[in-house]
Amino acid sequence: MPRIDAFLKLGREQGCSDIHLAVGVPPLLRMNGDIMPIKFRELGERELQGYLFELLTENQRADFRRGEDLDFSYMSEEAGRFRVNVFRKSTGIGATFRHIPMQTPSLSELGLPPVINKLADHHQGMLLVTGSTGTGKSTTLAAIIDHINRQRAVNILTLEDPIEFVHQSRKAQVVQREVGTHLPDFTTGLRAALREDPDVIMVGELRDPESIMMAMVAAETGHLVLGTLHTTTAIKTIDRIIDALPAEQREQGKSFLSQNLRGVVTQILVKTADGRGRRAIVETLVMNHAIGKLLLADKTHQIPSVMQTGRDQGMQLLDQALLEAIGRKEIDPNDAYLYAQDKKQFQRFVTDAELLPRIHTPGGH
């Protein structure tokens, strides 16, 4: 058994989401969003390298010695499945282990709104799940894949870096391909995908203009394309896609989005009211005629007002979703305040006065 499994097992028994190992500090656990140290000595360079090299293949060791970061999945018999990133920093090497549950959660178990099931039932177009790093995008995408896998007799192809949730084919066939193992990059995988008779293509990350354009081609030619972007609102997602295109293709890009973008789900993880976990809160944009017209007319800044009044179609802004979750006592109002876009409407719920802006009285200090 690799020695690192002892740390992973301890972390999982504590219920953490991530385990951080780095030279010069003791192992750290991420618990409900906060970092906490394990009672252990500071890790040395040779010690940590010894732990990590027990997990690596010869090729991975060679890549790491050349100075490359490593991304891979690791299955620990003791602690379960992890996504691993190994890197170098100013004080030496480090690694992060993100726990991947063995069972893919369902959309309802994640507490996501029912409109996401509807968006997943489209047979063609593009559906994007966005958010900062560590907000659960991969988990939401896995739940969408699982939903389709159980409902439809289709061919699902995933392109991942690395493979996280492992899907058993149910009603659908699920083919999972890993960047670095089965293909060199997402763009190559997308190009090959169009020759592999998929109905649904999931792209782990739309990283660059080329992968975005290939995904658009796939969505336009009769496939349902699922993808992620590191954007923090639905509007920023649309703007990022348009800005990524060469200037001469931007008008075409707007036309594509107005006709083929099915929806954007942007999520954050907010502490639960009891402080024992975190819950996904989502902003949802569902493409309709009004949003399509604003997009084509370069008026994306007006889209939030359409989303705000589009509740009957399943749309909601992040602040609306946060306020509702506070009302249902599902989330910590102090944490919600930190994530809110328009903080004024959240001030009345805050219990920690330190978070609120200081009010200067005339003549005061």
Question: Could you explain the architecture of this structure?
Answer:
The protein has 365 residues and is an alpha/beta fold. It is 33% helix and 24% strand. It contains 13 helices and 13 strands. Strands 9-8-10-11-7-12-13 form a seven-stranded mixed sheet, sandwiched between helices. Strands 3-2-1-6-5-4 form a six-stranded antiparallel sheet, with helices on one face. Strand 12 and strand 13 form a beta hairpin. Helix 9 packs antiparallel against helix 10. The N and C termini lie far apart (62 Å).
How many individual β-strands? 13
Q: What value does the average pLDDT take?
A: 94
The level of helicity is 25-40%
| Class by SSE composition | alpha/beta
Largest sheet: 7 strands, mixed
Unreliable stretches (pLDDT < 50, length at least 5) are none
Number of helices: 13
Q: What pattern of helices and strands is seen along the backbone?
A: HEEEHHEEEHEHEEHEHEHHEEHHHH
Instruction: Work out the strand percent.
Output: 15-25%
Distance between the termini: 62 Å
Computed Rg: 22 Å
Strand order of the largest sheet: 9-8-10-11-7-12-13
Q: Label the overall shape.
A: globular
Brief descriptors of the model:
single chain, 365 residues, alpha/beta, seven-stranded mixed beta sheet, six-stranded antiparallel beta sheet, 24% strand
Topology:
Elements: H1 5-14, E1 18-22, E2 28-31, E3 34-37, H2 45-53, H3 58-65, E4 70-76, E5 80-89, E6 92-100, H4 115-120, E7 125-130, H5 137-151, E8 155-160, E9 173-178, H6 186-193, E10 200-203, H7 209-220, E11 224-229, H8 234-244, H9 250-260, E12 261-271, E13 278-286, H10 289-296, H11 303-308, H12 318-327, H13 333-339
Parallel strand pairs: 7-11, 7-12, 8-9, 8-10, 10-11
Antiparallel strand pairs: 1-2, 1-6, 2-3, 4-5, 5-6, 12-13
Helix pairs in contact: 6-7, 8-9, 9-10
